[in-house]
Design a protein that fits this description.
This protein starts with a helix and ends with a helix. It is built from 16 helices and no strands. The protein has a domain of 165 residues. The protein is mainly alpha-helical. The longest helix is centred in the middle third of the chain and has 36 residues.
Length: 541
């Protein structure tokens, strides 16, 4: 668990540095890197942050949700270490081969673009290691069941981790289906790779990999609500059903990346962009309501009942574990969730998919949502796992706000530039070096990209502060003693009797209800604003 968490933080730092270079190059007035270096950097940034940082940390979360939360030994530790070794070798190999300039194919590595064989081999090794980690997680659940280390059903946090692991297995299998033949193609054993088949299968892998993140970070939301407040889910059955909806629908909702691909049937596109996507979104909305609702219930049970939001005002905003989690929840919902549903609409998607609107959206979901949640949990775990006190506590209290503000700016300004038509994955958005017509964007587009560059600097500063605090805490933080310490609450939870009187004869969580209504109003306004832009492209007044 410790090794995976430390490796995750290291690759977050590496990916963040690459991200800074990408952001400064997209800024027209700076345009830092030459073309070849930009595509190299864009490839390294995506893989390090979206794959290596995320999955290393998620394997640590799986071990935490099984052995720590269920109070049992980790099954087959040797296999767990073998999985970690394969992941580390794959990650280091990938960074090396990308740095040589032979594999600047970006994270998607669409065929017929061809990378060095070691590029594909590195990802396969990493995936096999992650699969071993998932198997150890499932085996640990069996150990806990056999040794009766818990009563009844597993906790909701562990159930969420099970969801993430099941999606991970699906994802890794999909990756093997496409990456193994692509490796053989790069070695000359296969004559060609069908580009359409590659895209279809890759997105079964690529989109699902992001859904591992969603299931993992929502599990962490529930964990931190319990850690900070002793909060109980408003309805465990409803929350568990929402996790099951992820398994059934979330990894299927990938056709919005393939809407203009002629070989994909209209029926498949329609199912994915309507039923599958909306059922998955419904699951996220359930979690977005129940997590703050559980916090509000716990706070009101402690007597924080004045007005709609005393419960929220009296929350520990100076504790990075709570603040990181809550900013993650708000950013994921308002920025990532709303933009994702809007972009999932077929007509809007066709216009926006190949613009920087897309990276703006997933920076809101994966970076604000997942990364901030992972950071928040790390602040709590370091003293427990490493027996070290956090260093620079005052800086740590501000770090989630710095990172959250910076990354919110990245998401908003990229989406703004995308709305104005700025293409993604292009070193020169004006196409001035093609010898053809130079495309001039409105001045607002350049302003958006400049603001994105400034936001990137702020976000990378916040990310660097996190990495420095965690690494220095592990190495030099004050020792807390060697006595065994069980995972503990940051705050004293209310007893069961305190919960009983909450909400009788009225709405139990009025503050959460109001925030949900604000969300729906924001969603409706944003949705129809986008349709206005769409109508203008059709020449409709």
């Amino acid at each position: 668990m410790k090794a995976n968490a430390v490796a995750a933080v290291v690759f977050l730092l590496v990916g963040g540095i690459y991200g800074l270079l990408v952001g400064l190059t997209r800024w027209p007035a700076v345009h830092l890197l030459p073309a070849d270096a930009f595509y190299l950097t864009l490839t390294a940034h995506g893989i390090n942050v979206l794959i290596f940082w995320m999955i290393f940390f998620e394997i640590a979360v799986l071990y935490f949700a099984s052995s720590v939360l269920l109070g049992c030994r980790l099954a087959v530790p040797k296999v767990a270490w073998a999985g970690f070794a394969l992941m580390l070798i794959g990650a280091l190999m990938n960074n090396y081969i990308v740095a040589t300039g032979t594999s600047s194919v970006m994270m998607t590595s669409y065929a017929p673009m061809e990378a060095h064989p070691l590029f594909y081999l590195s990802l396969i090794l990493f995936a096999v290691g992650a699969l071993l980690g998932c198997m150890v997680f499932f085996a640990t659940l069996v150990v806990a069941k056999q040794e009766k280390t818990y009563e009844g059903s597993v906790s909701l946090v562990t159930f969420g981790a099970i969801t993430a692991a099941i999606i991970a297995v699906f994802t890794i299998v999909s990756g093997a289906i496409i990456l193994v033949p692509t490796l053989l193609w790069s070695l000359g054993f296969i004559a060609e790779i069908d580009a359409l088949a590659y895209r279809l299968i890759w997105w079964a892998f690529g989109h699902s990999s992001q859904q591992i993140n969603v299931a993992a970070h929502i599990s962490i939301w529930y964990a931190i609500a319990a850690i900070c407040f002793g909060a109980k889910p408003m309805s465990e059955k409803v929350s568990r059903m929402a996790f099951l909806m992820y398994i059934l629908f979330l990894q299927l909702a990938s056709a919005h990346h393939l809407l203009v691909d002629p070989g994909v049937s209209s029926e498949f596109k329609m199912f994915n962009t309507s039923y599958a996507m909306y059922l998955a979104v419904m699951a996220s909305m359930v979690h977005g309501l129940t997590v703050p609702g559980s916090i509000e219930s716990a706070q009101r049970a402690k007597g924080f009942n004045s007005g709609l939001f005393e419960w929220l005002r009296r929350a520990p905003w100076g504790n990075p574990t709570f603040s990181g989690m809550f900013i993650s929840l708000i950013g994921f919902g308002f920025l990532g969730g709303i933009s994702g549903v809007v972009m999932g609409a077929e007509q809007i998607n066709i216009l926006m998919h190949n613009t920087v609107y897309v990276p703006g959206h997933f920076h809101a979901t994966v970076v604000i949502g997942s990364t901030l949640a992972f950071m928040a949990l790390t602040y709590w775990l370091v003293p427990i796992l490493f027996r070290r006190e956090l260093v620079f506590k005052k800086v740590a209290a501000w770090q989630p706000y710095i990172f959250g503000l910076g990354m919110s700016g990245v998401a908003l300004f990229l989406m703004g530039a995308g709305t104005l038509g700025v293409p993604r994955r292009h070193w020169d958005i004006t196409f001035s070096l093609t010898g053809g017509v130079v495309h001039e964007f409105p001045a607002a587009a350049n302003t958006m990209l400049a603001l994105n560059g400034l936001s990137v600097i702020l976000a990378v500063l916040g990310g660097a502060l996190f990495c420095v605090i965690i690494v220095l805490s592990i190495l030099f933080g004050r020792k807390l003693g060697d006595e065994k310490q069980e995972p503990a609450l940051i705050a004293t939870p209310p007893d069961d009797a305190a919960y009983e009187g909450i909400g009788r004869g009225s709405i139990s969580v009025p503050g959460t209800f109001v925030m949900a209504m604000v969300f729906f109003v924001a969603f409706a306004l944003y949705y129809f604003i986008n349709w206005k832009y769409l109508a203008e492209t059709w020449g409709i007044s």
